[in-house]
TrEMBL record:
Residues 430-484 form the Chitin-binding type-2 domain. It catalyses: Random endo-hydrolysis of N-acetyl-beta-D-glucosaminide (1->4)-beta-linkages in chitin and chitodextrins. PROSITE patterns: CHIT_BIND_II (PS50940), GH18_1 (PS01095), GH18_2 (PS51910). This is chitinase. GO terms for molecular function: chitin binding; endochitinase activity. It is an enzyme of class 3 (hydrolase). Residues 383-428 are annotated as: Disordered. Keywords: Carbohydrate metabolism, Chitin degradation, Chitin-binding, Disulfide bond, Glycosidase, Hydrolase, Polysaccharide degradation, Signal. Residues 1-17 form the signal peptide. GO terms for cellular component: extracellular region. It comes from Popillia japonica. SMART domains: ChtBD2 (SM00494), Glyco_18 (SM00636).
């Protein structure tokens, strides 16, 4: 019996010691924000995360890699890609990856490439050449999502596994060996549509589970962006829209827990309240007001949230079952993560024996320390992971101290800003549009406004300033590329 207990203690210690990866994404378009909102490569502390991922590059139908913003990314312009990998000069233990895809990229290019053995081989060869050119340590596949959205096919699920197997073989043969990772959907329903989980677990070095956007202004009542556990009052689908259910779903479907990286948002989802109820499941008329940095209705970076809370007038509530806070002021409602919430999520990851934690993304933490502490969320995660100075990420010296809904949400946010500075078009008033079926439609007068249609109900959204909604890809895009 004593031997058995000692063995269990050793296993337990090994599990906790393995939760050591801290993966941090960069949304490169934040380079074009103004003032204290602007985030550049030089704002990244290279000793904070163990792995950093540059988002995004795109995929062409012939399997080549598409630079999305040549002025920002390439050496002939601002050289952001090489500046990003150059951070390893300050921390040789840091590992850098580039992410291909993202919400705006959609499925068509991926679907075409994975369906052909010839195109898959070309894609892998082009990826290796890209990593070699810019000095990256790995490749992160952010296909949102196989067998989902326009341009996808039912065969994408199996073909994605084939692509990963072939990537794995090529990366293992390469010297140095490249990392292969993926950003994946969290909810059980989306996982079942898109992934052969045991094969992803076999071929990927680690799996970045996007355990956020579980509720948002696409719903008619308030809900938290990334609740840790369900509430006792939740039933049906709502009871599965939390981190614990999502992670258990991945494990139940065959994922090695040590391959799973727990996604933690450095932003919140917002609502405009439509009544006197200020709590969870309160009636909402649409998204909350856009912030000065992120400029997207229904979405606020933590750097925007903390300044609002600091200014006063907000009531903060920490839900005892979800284990996360929300705040309200007038008709504005925010569900977000603070330092206490993210530390608790890291503790959860350790308890489950996961491989570590991930943030989306660098530029929405309080990276300027405007609320008192530089990168408060990232540092809370790092401290809870207890990554030692001798470990993969080194030390961080930059900081000071401190629903019941029957409509399933989209699996990703409705819009993601692109990676080039837009030219602001005029913004006429919006009038609504005719919903033919569930999906999205654009306002007939204001091309920067679009609506999500759920039955006969419309939910209004606005593109980031200066962008138009592109009906061909169901995402916001540059005005020059949109027929308006």
């Amino acid at each position: 019996m004593l031997i058995k207990l000692l063995l269990l203690a050793v296993i337990s210690t090994a599990v906790f010691a393995s939760t050591d990866k801290f993966v941090c994404y960069l949304g490169s378009w934040s380079n074009y924000r103004n003032g204290n909102c602007r985030f550049t490569i030089e704002d990244i502390n290279p000793n904070l995360c163990t792995h950093i991922i540059y988002g995004f590059v795109g995929i062409k139908n012939d399997g080549t890699i598409r630079i999305m913003d040549s002025w920002l990314d390439e050496d002939s312009g601002l050289g952001a890609l090489r500046r990003f990998t150059g951070l390893k000069q300050k921390n040789p233990n840091l590992q850098t990856l580039v992410a291909i895809g993202g919400w705006n990229e959609g499925s068509p290019g991926f679907s075409k490439v994975v369906s052909s053995p010839t195109l898959r081989a070309a894609f892998i060869s082009n990826a290796i050449a890209f990593l070699e050119k810019y000095g990256f340590d790995g490749f992160d596949l952010d296909w949102e999502y196989p067998s989902q959205r326009d341009g996808s096919a039912p065969t994408d699920k199996a073909n994605f596994s084939k692509l990963l197997a072939e990537f794995r073989q090529a990366f293992d043969a390469h010297k140095p060996r490249y990392l292969l990772t993926a950003a994946v959907a969290a909810s059980r329903a989306s996982v079942d549509l898109s992934y052969e989980v045991p094969k992803l677990s076999q071929y990927l070095d680690f799996i970045n589970v996007m355990t956020y956007d579980l509720h948002g202004a696409w719903e008619s009542v308030t809900g938290h962006n990334a609740p840790l556990y369900p509430r006792s009052s939740e039933t049906g689908t709502a009871k599965t829209l939390n981190i614990d259910s999502c992670i258990n779903g991945w494990i139940e479907r065959g994922a090695d827990p040590q391959k799973l990286i727990l996604g933690i948002p450095t932003y919140g989802r917002t609502f405009a309240l439509s009544g006197s109820n200020k709590g969870l499941d309160a009636p909402a008329s649409g998204p909350g007001s856009a912030g000065t940095c992120t400029a997207e209705a229904g979405y606020l970076g933590y750097n925007e949230i903390c300044q609002k809370l600091k200014a006063g007038g907000w009531t903060v509530v920490r839900d005892p079952e979800h284990k996360v806070p929300y705040a309200y002021n007038g008709n504005q409602w925010i569900g977000y993560d603070d330092a206490e919430a993210v530390a608790l999520k890291v503790k959860y990851a350790k308890t489950k024996g996961l491989g570590g934690a991930m943030i989306w993304s660098f530029e929405t933490d309080d990276f300027k320390g405007l609320c008192g502490t530089v990168n408060p969320l990232s540092n809370a995660i790092k401290n809870a992971l207890d990554v030692s100075p001798e470990g993969p990420g080194g030390s961080d010296n930059s900081s000071s101290s401190t629903t019941t809904t029957t409509t399933p949400p989209p699996t990703v946010p409705p819009t993601v800003p692109p990676t080039v500075p837009p030219t602001a078009p005029p913004t006429p008033p919006s009038t609504g549009c005719t919903c033919g079926s569930t999906g999205y439609c654009r306002d007939p007068i204001n091309c920067g406004v679009f609506y999500q249609c759920v039955g006969k109900t419309q939910y209004r959204f606005e593109c980031p300033a200066g962008l138009y909604f592109d009906v061909s890809i169901s995402a916001c895009n540059y005005p020059s590329l949109v027929k308006c």
